[in-house]
Design goal:
It is globular and about 45 Å long. The chain is mainly alpha-helical. The protein starts with a helix and ends in a 7-residue tail after the last helix. The protein has helices at 4-29, 35-55, 63-82, 88-97, 104-126, 133-162, 167-170, 178-196, 198-207.
């Protein structure tokens, strides 16, 4: 049962989550660089919203996990609005640090490892799939690498399907090792989460009163 004292903050946080999601989504959809690229970049966020809505009653996640999923969605929406190669803030960073390319896509792939690591670890723990900590870390890292590799395949399939129109979606910017570096950043992101946020996630799962024991 959910205590009434705890239901109000949970309901408020849910509304805040949805408000932020749709405000950023609407902003992202207003005059983006290219609507086709915008759709390709934002589609995973929309799909994620549907999955969260369907699973919320039967398998709600911890507040930390929901917050990081929202962060990932925002990263996707910003990339969709500007394209990953033209996010203004990272153009500024490129000028400051003498980079030869816009590295917003690398931030995106770091998040692509960081957030899935959070999701995978929580699901594996709550379903008690893995009880040994070393095997848990191994499973999470393997999942994140597999997810990153699959996304690279999706980018490849999109490029084959639509040709040059997918160039902005790929975001390679002429870098020959873009695919490999993307997967490396996802791996680093997952490692950073496991090292820096493991205890934070454990605490968040314990404090999420709306999560019923499984």
């Amino acid at each position: 049962m959910i205590d009434n004292k705890n239901s109000l903050p949970t309901y408020s946080l849910k509304l805040l989550w949805l408000l932020i999601f749709f405000v950023v989504l609407i902003w992202s959809a207003i005059d983006p660089k290219d609507y086709f690229t915008w759709f390709l970049e934002v589609f995973p966020a929309l799909l994620g919203l549907v999955v969260l809505a369907v699973t919320y009653q039967k398998f709600p996640l911890s507040r930390l996990t929901y917050a990081l999923i929202l962060l990932h969605c925002i990263v996707l929406m910003i990339g969709g609005h500007y394209t990953y190669a033209q996010v203004p803030l990272f153009d500024t960073f490129a000028q400051w640090f003498g980079w030869q390319r816009n590295h917003y896509d690398k931030l995106g792939h770091f998040i692509q490892g960081f957030v899935p690591a959070c999701i995978a670890r929580e699901i594996l723990l709550r379903l008690q799939v893995v009880k040994n900590e070393r095997w848990l870390v191994t499973f999470v890292l393997c999942f994140c690498l597999a997810f990153s590799a699959f996304y690279e395949l999706v980018e490849w399939w999109a490029a084959l399907a639509v040709g040059e129109d997918a160039e902005a979606f790929l975001g390679t910017q002429g870098y020959v090792w873009d695919t490999q570096s993307d997967m490396l950043l996802a791996l680093i992101g997952s490692i950073v989460f496991l090292v820096a946020c493991r205890k934070w996630q454990d605490s968040s799962m314990q404090n999420s009163s709306y999560i019923a024991p499984l």
